[in-house]
Amino acid sequence: MWGLVLDSTIREKELTRKIDPEKVPRHIAIIMDGNGRWAVERGLPRQEGHRQGVETVRDIVRCAEKLGISILTLFAFSTENWQRPAWEVNYLMSLPEKYFQSELPELIRKNVQVRLIGDAARLPRKVRKAVEDGSEATRDNTGMILNFALNYGSRSEILRAVNNLIKEAAAGKVKGQVDEKTFSSYLYTAGLPDPDLLIRTSGEKRISNFLLWQLAYSELWFTNVYWPDFSKLHLMEAVHDYQMRKRRFGKL
Ligand code: FPP
To answer: What is the pLDDT along the chain (252 residues), one digit of tens a residue?
Structure first.
């Protein structure tokens, strides 16, 4: 036990030394996967995996803020997740409220600004209220932006943008050809830079309808670790790996 603690303390020191604070990714997006498998492998109900997943959210938000990440976007519930059994959906829908109840004071203190990306209208009232209250209470904060993607699906986000553009073009508010910058401004992530780094846990190597437009040039980092076991050391490893890469954006 103490050996493990010592190992991770040494590793943290080593990573802290290796990470260049001037070159941390501005925007990190995370697909938090593997809660269910984490629980089942321990003979626990799947909800326990999600409950533990919230603990990881807490740690990772703290660590990202400390590392100086400007934007952290977490995929918490997809438009496809409604197809899960009702008991699991209900449990997942209880989490934002619990999270904000315990974390909001610290988020406010740390100058974090909370935002929701996704189709809020279809979320249960208590979930919408929890996130909207969190957003409202942190609206004027100028530190890290923390996006919760809830009832989020990238294809539906893109279609929503297209339909809004059609409406505005018909009303004469958008004229001529639509360029990438204008199109981006119709997405939920309007005004934010695209993710520099996408992390997905649990060994799956898919994008799963997450930020399809925004991830065009993001660096991808995959780990076999299940989300409940993902720690600040893993986040630091991902950031360090990102810093070792040469981003070319199609150039030489
Ligand atoms: C995927 O794991 C995870 C989810 C569908 C939910 C993720 C949600 C959290 C980590 C908590 C969110 C916290 C807040 C504060 C909103 P899975 O269940 O698909 O895992 P599996 O692939 O192993 O079954």
So the answer is: 667 788 889 999 999 999 999 999 999 999 999 999 999 999 999 999 999 999 999 999 999 999 999 999 999 999 999 999 999 999 999 999 999 999 999 999 999 999 999 999 999 999 999 999 999 999 999 999 999 999 999 999 999 999 999 999 999 999 999 999 999 999 999 999 999 999 999 999 999 999 999 999 999 999 999 999 999 999 999 999 999 999 999 898
Kindly list the catalytic residues.
33, 81
Residue 217 lies in a domain: yes
Task: Name the strands in the sheet holding 27-31, side by side, starting at the edge strand that comes first in the sequence.
Answer: 113-117, 145-152, 71-78, 27-31, 197-200, 219-222
Q: Answer yes or no: is 183 within a domain.
A: no
- Residues in contact with ligand 1 by the CB-under-6-Å rule are 32-37, 50, 53-54, 57, 76, 81, 92, 95-96, 99, 148, 202, 227
CATH number of the domain enclosing 132: 3.40.1180.10
Q: How far is the CA of 228 from the centre of ligand 1 (A)?
A: 9
What is the model's pTM? 0.96
161 in any annotated domain: no
Ligand 1 centroid vs 165 CA: distance in angstroms? 33
Residue identifier of the C-alpha nearest atom 14 of ligand 1: 96
